[in-house]
Design goal:
The protein is mainly alpha-helical and 203 residues long. The chain is 75% helix and 0% strand. The longest helix is centred in the first third of the chain and has 40 residues. The chain is elongated and about 70 Å long.
């Protein structure tokens, strides 16, 4: 309880230091809660989509084989909801762990600004998905059987450019995340550093 209370009251505390054990325990707790909340939200969304598709499948089992665009049209609202939820969760995750990450970096005598690019990508990517994915499904839903490859490419090319930028952003975010995780795993400096007293001195 002391661990939870200390981190919940320190959500806006970006000064001082934090050693590895309480930091990683807090990250584990936040991640576990996020997974549980994600399942609670996602299961009804998925079940709702299945319920909407079931009557169409019963009436004509080959309906979606003949008209694959219908699948995309039905998935668009669901994907929009999922992307909005992912963006909200990204912001909540950042609020919950942001200060702790900065304090952990301070423990290694590193500036908290090392985390800024990772935090920025963590928020920007879901927002990018929110803007791109619904348009992708809507565009895919306009593709009809019998269209030529050139016609399909003309429809999908703008979306492919967007996904190219999204892939590049994802790779940059991944590499920066690896660097940040390494810093967070390294032991802190012994004794006093420019960010304060050694937290292990009070353990």
């Amino acid at each position: 309880m002391n661990l939870l209370g200390r981190h919940l009251t320190g959500l806006a505390s970006f000064s001082g230091r934090e050693n590895r054990q309480p930091f990683w325990l807090w990250i584990l707790i936040v991640y576990a809660v996020q997974m549980v909340v994600g399942m609670i939200v996602m299961i009804p969304i998925m079940m709702g989509m299945i319920e909407r598709m079931a009557p169409l499948m019963q009436g004509d089992p080959h309906r979606f084989d003949d008209h694959p665009e219908l699948v995309m049209q039905m998935m668009t609202p669901m994907m929009s909801n999922i992307m909005v939820f992912a963006a909200i969760m990204a912001v909540v995750w950042l609020v919950l762990i942001g200060a702790a990450v900065v304090r952990r970096l301070h423990d290694g005598n590193r500036s908290g600004w090392w985390a800024a690019p990772v935090f920025a990508c963590h928020v920007v990517m879901p927002l990018f998905y929110v803007s791109v994915m619904p348009r992708f499904f809507e565009t895919f839903g306009t593709i009809r059987p019998g269209m030529t490859p050139d016609q399909v490419n003309a429809q999908m090319l703008p979306m492919m450019h967007s996904f190219g930028w999204l892939w590049l952003l994802g790779m940059v975010s991944f590499l920066m995340m690896i660097v940040l995780i390494v810093f967070l795993c390294l032991p802190g400096t012994q004794g006093v550093n420019r960010y304060g007293e050694d937290p292990l001195a009070f353990a």
